[in-house]
Amino acid sequence: MYIQQLSLNHYRNYDQLSVQFDDKINVIIGENAQGKTNLMEAIYVLGFSKSHRTTKDKELIQWEQNYAKIEGSVFKRKQQFPLEIQITNKGKKAKLNHLEQKRLSDYIGALNIVMFAPEDLNLVKGSPQIRRRFIDMEIGQIQPIYIYHLGQYVKILKQRNHLLKQLQKRKSNDLTMLRVLTEQMIEHAAIILEKRFMFMKRLRTWANEIHRGISRGIEDLDLQYAPTIDVSETDEKEKIGTVLAETFEKLETKEVERGTSLIGPHRDDLVFYVNNKNVQTFGSQGQQRTTALSLKLAEIELIYQEINDYPILLLDDVLSELDDFRQSHLLDTIEGKVQTFVSTTSVDGIHHQTLEKAEIFRIDNGKIID
Ligand SMILES: Nc1ncnc2c1ncn2[C@@H]1O[C@H](COP(=O)(O)OP(=O)(O)OP(=O)(O)O)[C@@H](O)[C@H]1O
Ligand SMILES: [Mg+2]
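Above: the input record for the complex with adenosine-5'-triphosphate. Below: its predicted structure, written as tokens.
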């Protein structure tokens, strides 16, 4: 799939922008603080209806303005459709084919995106929360129903934690209510866990193949899902539900004592191993970067398998950080099939072969020049 046309209104430092993109490689060049990441972010927001950099939608509105609008024309499996995101101080509207989609799960997934940015190094090094966000976003864009279950889970979890606090402070003694919430929460948790296990299993095969390629065959990458309960990848949601129920029962007194939910998908983690060693603990900077890159490239293949079209790839400021071999490997992997956006402050770090094929956009203070 590809974005053919993009228009921005009052989006960050872009007052007005209307641009046609190449369906293969687009290189965005500009000095620091001119709007390269803002442009990538706008494409990301068009796909996910939220930014990869902030949870505050209002920050996307140009200063002194009261709304921001992103419009794009997307080709997917040879069909064209418009997408639109509008943000005001009051909220956000997402339109697919000019029709507002009230539920995010009806919007996300129309435009599929894989992004690789400097902060993705944190995928390996950072907190579990970052890895959970990664897996949630990725499953969400290929299986929108997942977003629904996640939303329900978070909602019930909040109610449950609130009640646990009340029980802890003895402002309530409603254990029946606690058990009702637990049961409701388990229903969604079991589905979330089953889908996460499945995703990791499928991503693993691709990621290892890609990682071996990038490391010239000397490193194997393994991915594992680390749950807070005693279940494994081969368990189906019924079994997962049973184990969750048993574990919650055992932990009830402790959860009341602590005033919070101690197990469940919101506490789980992902673990990456290179040649059987935990990359987070033992990996070099280069190995951590390669791991993150392999995961992202693996996603491209996984999305293709799932929806029968390639996603769009956004490479913000990362290409010049890869050595020549890794750069060529990356570009060979996507060659000709994935619409790619590459941003950089200087063409020096980018392979001349890439530049020859690319459409080049120069950005200066929120405008495309030349
Ligand atoms: N809501 C906003 N309204 C207007 N300008 C904004 C808004 N948010 C950010 N900016 C400005 O946008 C500018 C460009 O930001 P951006 O992150 O896109 O730069 P960049 O070209 O990616 O730079 P770098 O090479 O340093 O990564 C920043 O200087 C910032 O001041
Ligand atoms: Mg930037």
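Notes for the reader.
The CA atoms of residues 207 and 298 lie 5 Å apart.
The chain has two domains: 1-112+309-370, 127-295.
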